[in-house]
Amino acid sequence: MPQSLSQHLQNISTSNVPEPSKFFHAVIDSVCGRATDLPANLTVEACKSLVCRTVSVSRSSEEIQKNLISEGIAQDLAPHFSSAIESRVDEIKSHLIRTQFRSCSPSLVNFDWKVQLVLGSDSLSNQQEPLLQLQLQTATSENKAHPASALLEFTSDELDKFIETLENISKQIN
After folding, report:
1. Could you give the maximum distance between any two Cα atoms of the chain, in Å?
2. Is residue 152 helix, strand or coil?
3. Which residues in 118-138 are b (16+ Cβ under 10 Å) and which e?
4. How many CB atoms lie within 10 A of CB 98?
5. pTM value?
6. Cβ atoms of residues 134 and 152 within 8 Å
7. Alpha-carbon span 147 to 1, nearest angstrom
8. What is the pLDDT of residues 51-91, one digit of tens each?
9. Mean per-residue pLDDT for 117-122?
10. Which of 116, 124, 111 is CA-nearest to residue 150?
11. What's the CA dihedral at 174, 133, 135, 171 to 10 degrees?
12. Do 140 and 104 form a contact (C-beta atoms < 8 A)?
């Protein structure tokens, strides 16, 4: 009968994890998408899953340790794991938010643009206004085969405002 994830967590002890702080920081590196030398096994996967659950529900050091112990981490290892999580909680949350956001929201897969010079219209016979046509193709992770398309048209002033808005968003994200 296969072991549950909590049973894999109960198998972790100071005898098979001689440097617990180093091990738990490597687990967090793996959660955050960095390459590690950790083996690909269920114990490591159970620890990664525990990091994600703990960060989402625990706020204080005591809550983190209680959660770790209740999930099956040995009491002598809980302070090491808790310390690693506490010291990198912002990094963990940031990575989890980014990966969740990427998986559910559309991303830009292609774009095309062209500039046209409008020489006149029904109301004005001599206009000469440049227009930018921007075609954006987006797709979600579930629907990459059929991207959605949006066609945007900007005057010079509208384009300046659009670029300024994108720059402001970029500053807020970074």
Report:
1. 86
2. strand
3. eeeeeeeeeeeeeebeeebeb
4. 13
5. 0.55
6. yes
7. 44
8. 888 888 877 888 888 888 888 888 888 888 888 888 888 88
9. 71
10. 111
11. 0
12. yes
